[in-house]
Amino acid sequence: MDELHALNNQRFYRECSLFIFTETWLTELTPEANVDLRGFASVRADRDAEACGKSRGGGLIVYINNRWCNPGHVSVKASLCCPDLELLVVSMRPYYLPRELSHVICVCVYIPPRADAATACEKIHIVTARLQTQHPEAFIIITGDFNHVTLDYTLASFYQFVDCPTRNNRTIDLLYANMRDAYRATPLPPLGKSDHNLVYLKPQYTPLDQRQPVTTRSIRRWTPEMEDALRDCYDTTDWDVLLSTHGEDIEGVTHCLTDYLNFCVDVVAPAKTVRCYPNNKPWVTQEVKAVLNKKKKAFRNRDKEEMKTAQREVKQCVREAKDTYRRKVEQKLGENNMRDVWKGVKTITGHNTKNGTAGGTVEKANELNNFFNSHFTASQQTRSGDN
Fold first, then answer.
1. 252 with 117, same domain?
2. What is the pTM of this model?
3. Domain boundary among 284, 302, 318
4. Residues of the chain whose pLDDT is less than 70?
5. What is the pLDDT of residue 387?
6. Rounded CA gap, 296 and 290, in Å?
7. Which of 68, 85, 97, 350 could disulfide-pair with 17, CB 3.0 to 4.6 Å?
8. Same domain for 243 and 196
9. Domain around 170
10. How far apart are CA 328 and CA 309, in angstroms?
């Protein structure tokens, strides 16, 4: 703990979000004051000697950085202690997460060296499957001391990120996550007299709104004055002079008429090119952005009265923009365009359907095919022998 306190005073460690330790050797007789870490909230799961049959070793503890997550937003979802597995599930809702993630669930595990691998994997799979069903949009990480066990086949949709030795030349401390390219592992010296190296996992995940490109589209803003001007333009046009040069050529007449109509529209109501960002709602219009910028300007000038006025304008402008978008959705309903209606309703309510398709490589698929094929072949041979 003395060395951990010293490391916590260094900026590199102090800015880490989580400290996760397994095999803590803590018991119920160890007071909380002995394991407190300044600026961190701790969640412990000490070993139950009666449940696991061993009195020494084991135990789990998770330190959550208070600057990353409020201690009031930390809760224990599950805890398990048996001869084959020690498990602690901690749910956290940080101050900031990418929009596509609801919260973070950390599954901390310790698998003893003599544990039954199949039993341990089955218990982890049951807990993880329940978490994925209850929280489909959560970011789930599974980490700890796995010893001789891996989850490569048990949780095929999870990715393992620790690629450096953690104990001598072996990699037994692993971290799985349900997102690709989430972390990059860097080995660090062990803490105290531990025989396990520390592993620093730097986040590499890119939010969805930053991965999607900015799109552009052309819009026209029509006003009653523009409609009157376009009507006058068409009324004063000598159509016979315009179309007589083409004679009986239907194609030429069509192209000439179309080009002239588009020319009049461009003169009366010029098209504007706008950029659409993937993280913007459809009702975030140019007017909404303008009043938001006005509010920011008042904040920089420290003008409280102007800020109050700008806030009222923002509220009114957002309400009008949402009402305009609602009328567009209702118009689609009148046109019996149910696809756009359902899309608009999901946008308004914030409902998202998460794609459960797991990514992977050809090598991963071949490994799974060989694994299940070997079991299927063994089963067929057993049945043939019985017959």
1. no
2. 0.64
3. 318
4. 9-17, 55-58, 277-280, 350-364, 374-387
5. 52
6. 10
7. 68
8. no
9. 2-210
10. 29
